[in-house]
Amino acid sequence: MDELVEVSEVQRSTRDLASLRAGLATWLAEQAGTDVDLGEVEVPGTNGMSSETVLLDAAWDGAQHRLVARFAPEPSAVPVFPAYDLERQARVMTEVRAATDVPVPEVLWTEPDGARLGTPFFVMRRVDGRVPPDVMPYNFDSWVTAATDEERALLQSTSVDVLARLHAAGPLERFAFLELDRAGATAMQRQLADQAAYYEWAREGLRVPLIERTFAWLEEHLPGDEGDAVMCWGDARIGNMLYDGFEPAAVLDWEMAVLAPPEVDVAWFAYLHRFFEDLAARFGASGLPEFLRLDDVATEYERVSGRTPRHLRYFTVYAALRYAIVSVRTTKRGVHFGQQTMPDDLDDVIMHRAGLEALLDGGGGPGLD
Description:
The protein is an alpha+beta fold. It folds into 2 domains: 2-125, Phosphorylase Kinase, domain 1, CATH 3.30.200.20; 143-360, Aminoglycoside phosphotransferase (APH), C-terminal lobe (Aminoglycoside 3'-phosphotransferase, Chain: A, domain 2, Alpha-Beta Complex). Helix content is 42%, strand content 13%. The strands form 3 sheets. The protein has a 5-stranded antiparallel beta sheet with strand order 1-2-3-5-4, with helices on both faces. Strands 6-9 form a two-stranded antiparallel ribbon. Helix 5 (149-167) packs across helix 9 (294-305), helix 6 (187-203) runs parallel beside helix 10 (312-336) and helix 10 (312-336) packs antiparallel against helix 11. The longest helix has 25 residues, at 312-336. The chain is globular.
């Protein structure tokens, strides 16, 4: 599986941790209003390729504080997204904590001025828990594969319940700042316009024919009855949750939060597991083929929310499009750091190319009828 390791372990940061620690110590003392004793800082290596995460332990006023800082990536790290609004992320987390019982870490402070440490950031309280890893994917060999069928069923049901609780957040006006500033009469039209702008930025002059074919399919098959938008997490997947046993202890990574039909989250939630399953098959791993199946996720979501997910083929294709554009950027990052080479056939930058082509051709598996 060396090829997968090379692709997955793309360098995430070029930041100097010693300088970062010194700057954080000074900044934290200003926020706390007293001297701060800051221990070593640590960068987790299992998840995340967008905002940079730093773990730190600090002490002030006789108390210990276990913290997490989230930084916008430096331009030299070849960021995945064109912009990182850390204040927006912090606001999303604060509003979700106030409006729901979804477990979201408490944000303590934000720093919008990039001049302080070279980039904007925010600091939140650390939550204990274990995460389904991305490297190696959790369906290869992890605590998730070691679990019993009953334990994975509990993980699946409690995780889907998080989506239902989040989508019930209201009043929706408190999340109006998540409305996309794009042309379009409906939430999905604005979503497609936003993804088109993202593709233009990510490709940097390259053309990926399969992505452009997927845009055309989505425009042609746009549902006429997409329904009301809700507060969507945007990056809804178990790899963005911390678990206490097999129940969510914290929901993380809110940079893609948006007002959208709930199916955007439901389809992404199942599709990202399906992507890992395709990798497992490709590299000869057993995987977890009975876990997080789209039809099971949709059934569980309907049970706990009372809302029937619709147009799941459409929203699965949309999930595949989003991840395809991300793949363009992560490939560019791998090439930049000398860990990959750009393929001759640019459709091959999409690791889930075969699955996306099957979706467009009318296949794709259960739950898509």
